[in-house]
Design goal:
heterodimer, A: about 375 residues, alpha+beta, 5-stranded antiparallel β-sheet, 20 strands, elongated, B: about 600 residues, mainly alpha, 27 helices, globular, disordered N terminus
């Protein structure tokens, strides 16, 4: 069995009465890009800081590269951190900033020169070595912070919202840059963000956090199409949520009844079971809901009056109100100008059995 | 279309909306500049020129020849430099840990601890000096304790020698050093030390290689301010030292008060001033004046901008810093080995605890002594001793019976109040202007307004004395108010500028866009929001005047005695328990004022 690069067991932190992180468990294999995603105050930065050794946990364990490191000081952990504001040392040149971790490790001057040169090439900033950090643009500072972090090949690279201070265009560019470095170097990256797009684009797996606990861990696709909680469904992308009651589970199918759409039939998730009469929510992504023309049918059909139809280029977003007042949204291919669907039209929406997810309504956790 | 519209606008507004010429726009700083020119620059220049001109208008070097001919004055200059130098060194070494702890601790703790630095900072020098007499005297608290513990059987001489002077001076100057270093340290990014540690640096390396170099501008600025201020001291050496510790200011006082020799006093003042300027010059060469402002904290100038001198310093600095880092880490490693550090249990924060202990002791040294005055004021004996024989209120009664104390207290209150009013009236517009407008000579104007802080007070005092003697302001309240306003103006301007720096000017813009004229914006929006800051500035100006001795020493001339002047006169004759009683009253009063000002400033900060 391969030792995971990072293993977190029941890690817990409280600040007085406030629980910052309630018993988190997590494992990262070598080379993975894992993102801690969640709203502010969800505990993701606390978790990162405890892995870095900058915050002391109340209980639990942190294992880095097979070594127990729960209370080890940061400088003995073999980790690298890219801080939100980069934390470049303002009085040292770019070269000296990158050389700093190597000097701390007692490396010889000639090797230091070679290694610093290597990473500067890697981040495509070979010519700025003798400048001071504040003479660089935001994007360049970001790359230097990355270079300083990877130059000593730490077991894990931790990144705390590293793109937060950049504008949109630069952010998109750096996203791909970081991804490229990750692929090229095979480094293990733990990344913190509250930006779901960032998380989806970059991650191998996403660890979704909410209210001081881990909500769900999975690949971006799993999180998007198979959310396990209402929060997960709501936080990532757009979603339709219907109140429903489980009627029966039969073979590969679950039958539910809902005020919004009568009977709903969905494919059964083999890992989950629901009892008859249980109140649940049914989540359907707008893009799996399609507008049904006359004569077309689907596994599940609801009728509604269109309140808005917004043309977004190739697709059109439809917003409609069902008979009982429930809102539904659908994203479908844009129709030609001859048969437009306009505000006030009565239309049918449908989605397949496999397009809905049943979510438990009961409160998570305590 | 567009053209026509613009043309119309131009036709209507041409006369009304022309940009105002620069000389009109600058009106807010005219009063302060005029005031300082008349009551600061003119008298000082005149005093100094007195030393080089004969009464007939010819040039003369007589006074300087006399100055350099006699070994006495050079010895005094050497004394002064030596005392100022040691004071600076000790203040930096002692003040650095305090500033470091304040800058790196949580906000709540910082706000609680900083009061213990601010209190002594604003407590009267005289009161604090008396406190050391109580503590260090032959029958003082320290000798009493030493003898009671059996460590010595004879009292040790702690007073009226170099020890006494150094203790008093360091105590007097350390708050200034702490506050100056703190202002720089607070701007150091708090993420840098954690970043260094994640990159593999132990605490020692992280501190010496990262934090210490970044805090150096603060250290240098503190050193400069402490040294310059120390050069002009006379209360401490006069009351805690012997003739061997005579400092240059005492000689100036002697020349004016006893010899009435203004030209020679001017020559000595020139010597003092020249010394200060040389120090400034060296500072500027080595570090650059801009570091004084505290804003240039994000590092020294780039390697290429540094002179050869600077590069040499930098090279030595790099090596020093690395060696210090290795040394402290060596100690830390030994300590860890001894204590046993493991990854499976929380570490003990030994370094932090040691720092806290050191700071606690330093804060006791700073804030503690003044309180020893209080019990002494209730003694039944006629002299100061420790422990005092309690309990009697007769020394408070003596204040009432004495013909001088009550008028002196009243005069100090009135002069303080009017000084604060005048300083606010002249200083506030200038502060608004400097904080908000751009203009070419902004830095120069600010430097000029702050220069009364830097120039030794004695020079201003003697200069004003000479000026007042000719215009009949000696012994008048007006003369005192003018003099004190010169000293209070820098504090007023700094305080108001600091408050405005945190003020969101978009609020003013919003009000203006909603239709408020500039005066209305000021009255309805700005002033209500920074009211607490304005009150704080007023109180600082008041305390500056209320506690001022140097100018009062000359200008009041025994006719219009202020409280500090009366205390000084009394202390020169004999340090009696009456002084302890007055000091206690003063201590309580200043404490209340400072706490009020501090509270106001915090409220201002919380609101803007």
């Amino acid at each position: 069995m391969i030792t995971p690069k990072l293993k977190i067991r029941e890690l817990r932190k409280t600040y007085g009465p406030v629980v910052a992180l309630a018993g988190a468990n997590l494992e990262m294999p070598e080379g993975e890009f894992l993102t801690l995603l969640g709203p502010s105050g969800s505990g993701k930065t606390t978790l990162l800081m405890m892995i870095a050794g900058l915050v002391q946990p109340d209980s639990g364990e942190v294992w880095i590269d097979g070594k127990l490191a729960t209370y080890a000081p940061p400088h003995k952990r073999d980790i690298g951190v890219v801080f939100q504001n980069y934390a470049l040392f303002p009085h040292l040149t770019v070269f000296e900033n990158i050389a700093f971790p190597l000097r701390m490790r007692g490396m010889r001057a000639s090797e230091i020169r070679r290694e610093v040169g290597r990473v500067l090439e890697l981040v495509q900033l070979a010519e700025v070595g003798e400048r001071l950090p504040r003479a660089l643009s935001g994007g360049q500072q970001q790359r230097i912070a990355l270079a300083r972090c990877i130059v000593y090949r730490p077991s894990i690279v931790l990144m705390d919202e590293p793109l937060g201070a950049l504008d949109k265009k630069l952010r998109d560019q750096m996203k791909l840059e970081i991804k490229r470095l990750h692929d090229e170097l095979g480094i293990t990256v733990l990344y913190v963000t509250h930006d779901q797009e960032e998380a989806m684009v970059m991650s191998d797996r996403i660890c979704l956090m909410n209210q001081a606990r881990i909500e769900q861990i999975g690949t971006p696709a799993e999180l998007y199409f198979r959310p396990q909680t209402i929060f997960a469904a709501d936080f990532l992308g757009e979603s339709n949520l219907f109140d429903a009651v489980v009627e029966r589970e039969e073979g590969a199918e679950v039958e539910l009844s809902s005020a919004a759409g009568g009977t709903i039939r969905l494919a059964r998730d083999p890992h989950r079971s629901f009892s008859r009469g249980e109140a649940v929510k049914v989540m359907v992504r707008p893009e799996t809901v399609s507008v049904l023309d006359n004569g077309k049918t689907a596994d599940n059909i609801v009728e509604g009056r269109v309140t808005d139809a917004i043309l977004v280029g190739g697709v059109t977003k439809y917003y409609a109100r069902l008979a009982d007042g429930t809102q539904i949204s659908a994203t479908d291919l844009t129709r030609g100008p001859l048969a437009p669907i306009v505000r006030g039209s009565e239309i049918r929406f449908g989605w397949p059995k496999g397009g809905g997810v049943i979510l438990p309504v009961r409160e998570q956790g305590l | 279309m567009t053209h026509g519209f613009a043309g119309d606008l131009q036709a209507v507004g041409a006369a009304k909306y022309r940009p105002r010429p620069a000389w009109k726009r600058l009106w807010p700083i005219y009063p302060i500049l005029a005031f300082l020119l008349a009551l600061f620059v003119y008298p000082v220049v005149q005093l100094l020129s007195l030393s080089v001109f004969t009464p007939n208008g010819g040039l003369t070097a007589d006074h300087y020849e006399r100055l350099f001919a006699s070994p006495v004055y050079l010895q005094v200059l050497r004394n002064t430099l030596e005392i100022a130098g040691w004071t600076t060194l000790l203040c930096i070494v002692g003040g650095y840990p305090i500033a470091y702890l304040l800058a790196t601790t949580e906000r709540g703790t910082r706000n609680r601890l900083i009061l213990w630095v601010l209190l002594p900072f604003w407590t009267s020098f005289l009161v604090r000096t008396f406190a050391w007499i109580v503590l260090l005297g032959r029958r003082g608290a320290i000798n009493g304790a030493l003898q009671a513990l059996g460590i010595t059987d004879q009292p040790i001489a702690l007073l009226y020698n170099m020890t006494g002077v150094m203790v008093g001076m360091v105590h007097a100057m350390m708050p200034l050093a702490v506050l100056t270093m703190l202002s720089v340290m607070e701007n150091i990014d708090r993420n840098l030390m954690p970043a260094a540690s994640t990159l593999g640096a132990r605490g020692g390396q992280a501190f010496w290689r990262i934090y210490f170099p970044l805090s150096l501008p603060g250290v240098a600025a503190a050193g400069l301010l402490v040294f310059i201020t120390s050069l002009g001291f006379f209360i401490t050496p006069a009351l805690l030292g012997s003739p061997r510790e005579t400092m240059i200011t005492q000689v100036i006082i002697q020349q004016v008060e006893e010899m009435l020799n203004y030209p020679f006093a001017g020559a000595i003042a020139m010597l003092l001033l020249a010394t200060a300027l040389v120090v400034f010059y060296l500072y500027d060469r080595a570090l650059g004046m801009s570091t004084l402002a505290g804003s240039a904290t994000t590092g020294q100038r780039g390697a290429d901008e540094r002179g050869r001198l600077g590069a040499g310093f930098a090279w030595i600095g790099t090596i020093m810093v690395a060696v210090f880092g290795k040394l402290s880490d060596g100690i830390a490693i030994l300590w860890e080995k001894a204590m046993g550090s493991r990854a499976d249990r929380p570490p003990r924060a030994s370094g932090r605890v040691a720092l806290r202990m050191a700071v606690l002791l330093l804060l006791i040294f700073l804030a503690g002594p003044s309180f020893f005055i209080i019990p002494v004021s209730f003694t039944t004996e006629g002299f100061i001793e420790w422990p005092p024989q309690l309990f009697s209120l007769k020394w408070y009664g003596a204040i009432l019976d004495h013909p001088q104390w009550i008028p002196a207290i009243t005069r100090s209150l009135v002069v303080g109040f009017l000084t604060a009013c005048l300083a606010m009236a002249i200083g506030a517009p200038a502060a608004f202007f400097l904080a908000r407008q751009r203009f070419f000579a902004k830095t120069a104007a600010l430097a000029f307004i702050l220069s009364p802080l830097i120039l030794p007070r004695i020079v201003i005092a003697v200069a004003l004395f000479y000026l007042y003697a000719r215009v009949g302001l000696i012994g008048t309240e007006l003369g005192l108010i003018f003099g004190h306003t010169v000293l209070a103006l820098p504090y007023v301007v700094i305080t108001i500028m600091a408050v405005l720096k945190n003020y969101d000017q978009r609020l003013d813009h919003a009000a203006a866009s909603l239709g408020a004229s500039p005066p209305r914006v000021l009255w309805y929006i700005t002033i209500p929001l920074i009211r607490s800051g304005l009150i704080a500035a007023f109180l600082f100006a008041f305390v500056t005047s209320f506690d001022e001795l140097t100018i009062a020493l000359f200008v009041s001339s025994g006719l219009a005695t202020t409280l500090p002047k009366q205390m000084w006169d009394d202390a020169i004759l004999k340090v009696s328990p009456t002084l302890a009683a007055v000091s206690t009253l003063l201590l309580v009063f200043v404490t209340v004022v400072i706490l009020a000002a501090e509270y106001m400033q915090r409220r201002a900060a919380a609101r803007s």
